[in-house]
Amino acid sequence: MDIRTAPSAAPTPAAPAHAETRRADYRAPDWLVPDVSLDVTLDPDRSTVRATLTVVRNGHHDRPLRLEGDDLVADWIRLDGATITPVTDDGALIITITGDRATIDSEVTLAPSANKKLMGLYASGGILCTQCESEGFRRIAFHPDRPDVLSTYRVRMTADKALLPILLANGNCTASGDGADGTHWAEWHDPFPKPSYLFAMVAGDLAANRDCFTTMSGRTVDLAIWVREQDLAKTAHAMGALKASMAWDERVYGREYDLSLFNIVAVDDFNFGAMENKGLNIFNSRYIMADPDTATDADFDAIAAVVAHEYFHNWSGDRVTCRDWFQLSLKEGFTVFRDQGFSADMGSAAVKRIEDVRMLRMAQFPEDAGPLAHPVRPESYMEITNFYTATVYNKGAELIRMMRTILGPDKFRAGSDLYFDRHDGQAVTCEDFVKAMEDASGTDLTQFRLWYSQAGTPTITARLDQSNGTTILHVSQTVPATPGQPTKQPMVIPLRTALIGRDSGAELAPERLILLTEAEQSIAFDGVTEPAMLSINRDFSAPISLDVARAPGELEALAEHDPDPFARYEALQDLMLRTLIAGAKGDPADPAPVIESMRRTLASNALDPAYKGEALLLPSESLIGDRMALVDPGAIHAAREALRSAIGQSLAEPLAAAQRETAPGHDLSPAAKGIRRLRTVALGLLAAGDPVRGATLAKAQFDAADNMTDRQGALSILVSLDGPEREAALAAFHDRAAGDPLILDKWFGLQAAAQRTDTLSAVEALASHPDFSMTNPNRLRSLLGSFGANQWAFHDPSGAGYRFIADMLLDTDRINPQSAARLVTPLARWRRFEPGRAALMRTELERMAATPGLSKDLFEQVSKSLV
Ligand code: TRP
Ligand code: ZN
């Protein structure tokens, strides 16, 4: 028997309307699967998977068992030992069972090397690996494949010993040995029941960096990071981060690791950053591999953050998992919050907060303001992979942070303890998390729950009134309409607020937490006699956009005096934005206040270089656009370049001094990283003020660099300049890469980010470069992602940038739909642009939407962008 359940590939003339899955339709599973046993023979071209499922009827009903399958061809299927021919539905098997318990056996044959979607079992550079979140297990075996069906897994793997000498799966290795004809085998058992999306298996020619960790109860955990032999030396930083994460989770959350083995494998082809499979994390190699010569300080930090993130999932995700995919933020928002806390503790908390807020504003605010806006807990989806978004991850993390701010650290910890304790081994909801916080703290979070259901970034206006001898703060909030949510209710907005003397610079009213709960509120401050300045939303206590009425000179004073580092940063950013927006509107403002504030920041002895580096970075062109009624990329670019040039000229001397400071490449201390950060920020401003001198300085920095941070920093400035230095440095950088894929990604990305009139044609040429690849998500993102984020170049008034991206994504979609769908978002923002560009962007979206055979992934993003 041969049951072909692969979906028919025949293209339909118009893209099919794909069904939406709705949160309201959730129903508990009809059948549970307490045990899964897999017997797998692994070969890149032809692997077989025999699955044995114990299935148990869940409750009193007579519904059949549904086993999902995606692109699966069953060789045979048996019910309690007897061959059956089930009804199929969109790749799934529908099996009628009379008793309450049964055994289902099936066998499928897979071709991992032909799997370019990188979901299910696939090959990456000779390594066989799996990716199952969200719905990839159904590409390996017929199974319910939903996160509320938890099973214990036993896996037997067999492969050619010479070709695939290392065999790994979740849990513990219980037996291994050699078979006939040069094969070998290994058996793995994972004692913790888990959903299918956490299943993993790896086979390849791998070498391990081994270490161990002693847990707080004294157990020894064997750690291993598996890479190709020649990459072993680059895994030291990731190993250090893993051990630091394990210790941090014990200290800060009381969470201890639970298996005696923890494996990490790095592969070059991976759709996301990394995956938290129980006991066997699989990583995109860019989040493992680092040494000072090939990775920047930012890369080192990202590696530590992602290693921590995936490790923390062992509790927030694996031990307590999601009931359904609408609850994704339950694990992702919480785990991002946890990795942010880890990174803050490992370096400068102030700088980390600034970086996180910049990321939120760059990725999440635009999402929340556009056609793809959705709540942190979405109500419906066509393709769940499209909901691994900045809203679910980063806004989700802000929700957890707000709960911690409202409850205070101790009650928050009591809440997380209760959550883990109450729900260990369960698949639960965002509501269960909030309830645990409520129960442990005695705080009513009823209104707070709106943050999970209402999309859109709240706008807060604040005005301090000292006109009648009293000091009153008037605050109001509105939540904008978003797709499907025309009207909104007021939210709970925690605002850390203080008053600062306009003359004295002293804190007149110590910081307090204002909980805004109504559309409008007035708050009195007692005992304030001096004229005061408002320091509000300190440390970015709520993910909102803020509009504060300011007296002349106030932002300058706050940029100098506000004791809260984030608020001080924010004041300087607001000052810059005021000047930039005026310039972009064709009404140039005097740059002197910005320049003088920057001069004082640079000269301050109280501030460290890392902070200065962040503070002196001008808001990006896209962020300026977000603050304007309609985006005119040319006007924004011109205004920003004019300000950068004025700054570079006026502050040439202190900037040059900062650029001359160096730190040895092997020194990865926060202080050394800060020096390098400020160095390249200063170089960029210097080059804006004097491009010829800038090119000379940048080339000198490039040539003398003993680390990737200085080298890439110098090249990132040079790529936007003219002259022989540019070409020489680009060629040298490519040569030095010597084929290293992560360095080549940088080479592509830097050129796609260049601020030049010929960037579009350069990017088009790079798409035909021999080192370009349509099948590697990192390479694709380094070219198309960087170009899509390059506002001025991408939004070329001809529309050629839009046409190029659309063509590339239509090609990508036939290979890897997840990648295509992720890279289309710059076009989704078409309504925000001036009418000429908006029409051209819309045309490309319509062309994609009308393309036959579009994937569900890309179809959802494109069709929703057009509404
Ligand atoms: N859960 C992963 C994380 O740690 C995200 C992820 C990895 C993912 N690979 C994926 C999501 C593939 C969807 C598809 O955030
Ligand atoms: Zn995650």
Structural features, described:
With 867 residues, this protein is of the alpha+beta class. The protein folds into five domains: 21-312, tricorn interacting facor f3 domain (Immunoglobulin-like); 325-331 and 344-453, Neutral Protease Domain 2 (Neutral Protease, domain 2), CATH 1.10.390.10; 459-542, Aminopeptidase N, middle-beta domain (Immunoglobulin-like), CATH 2.60.40.1840; 550-689, Zincin-like fold; 738-867, Peptidase M1, alanyl aminopeptidase, C-terminal domain (Zincin-like fold, Alpha Horseshoe). 40% of the residues lie in helices and 22% in strands. It is built from 28 helices and 32 strands. The strands form eight sheets. Strands 1, 3, 4, 6, 7, 10, 13, 15 and 16 form a nine-stranded mixed sheet that branches. The protein has a five-stranded mixed sheet with strand order 18-19-20-22-21, with helices on one face. Helix 10 packs antiparallel against helix 11 (592-603). The chain is globular. The chain starts with a strand and ends with a helix. The site of tryptophan has 13 residues, from strand 21 and helix 2.
Radius of gyration: 28 Å
Number of helices: 28
- Number of strand segments: 32
Helix content: 40-55%
Main sheet characteristics? 9 strands, mixed
Bound chemical compounds? tryptophan, zinc ion
**Residue-averaged pLDDT:** 97
CATH superfamily of the largest domain: tricorn interacting facor f3 domain
Helix/strand class: alpha+beta
Categorize the overall geometry.
globular
Contiguous uncertain segments of 5+ residues? 1-16
- What do we call the CATH topology of the largest domain? Immunoglobulin-like
Distance between the termini: 46 Å
The domain tally reads 5
CATH class value of the largest domain: Mainly Beta
Which strand-content bin applies to the residues?
Answer: 15-25%
